[in-house]
Amino acid sequence: MHMILPAVVLGTIPLAVIVRMTRSSMLEVLGEDYIRTARAKGVSRMRVIVVHALRNALLPVVTVIGLQVGTMLAGAILTETIFSLAGTRPLAD
C-alpha cells in the first residue's frame, strides 16, 4: 500500500505523454489510404483499428516509451528521496 503514491508520481507524466502521442499517431494513421481500403473491403471496424491502424501507429509510441525510461529512472531517484524509500538512492550517494 505504501508504494502506490510513489508509483503514481512516477507514472503520471510519462503516461500523459504516451497517451497524447498514441492519440496523435492514431489520428494520423486513420487518415491513410490503406485504412480506407480496408474499410471498403468490409473489414470490421475493430479489426481495422487494432490490426491496421494501431500496429502502424505504435512505432513512434515505442520510441517515446524508450525515451521515457531514462526520465523515469532519474525521477525514481528523486521520488525515493522524497518518500524516504531505499531503492536506487544508495546508487546516487
Automatic annotation (TrEMBL):
**One cellular component (GO) term of this entry:** plasma membrane
Cite the entry's keywords alphabetically.
Cell inner membrane, Cell membrane, Membrane, Transmembrane, Transmembrane helix, Transport
**Stretches of the chain forming a coiled coil according to its record:** none
Q: Where in the cell is it found?
A: Cell inner membrane; Cell membrane
Q: Entry's Pfam families?
A: BPD_transp_1
- In the record, what terms sit under GO molecular function? dipeptide transmembrane transporter activity
Q: Which domain of life does the protein's organism represent? A: Bacteria
Q: Report domain ABC transmembrane type-1 positions.
A: 1-93
UniProt membrane topology term: Multi-pass membrane protein
The record's listing under InterPro entries reads: MetI-like, MetI-like_sf
Family per similarity comment: Belongs to the binding-protein-dependent transport system permease family. OppBC subfamily.
Protein name (database record): Dipeptide transport system permease protein dppB
- The species this protein belongs to is Serratia rubidaea (Serratia marinorubra)
> Per UniProt, what is the name of the gene that codes for the protein in this document?
dppB_2
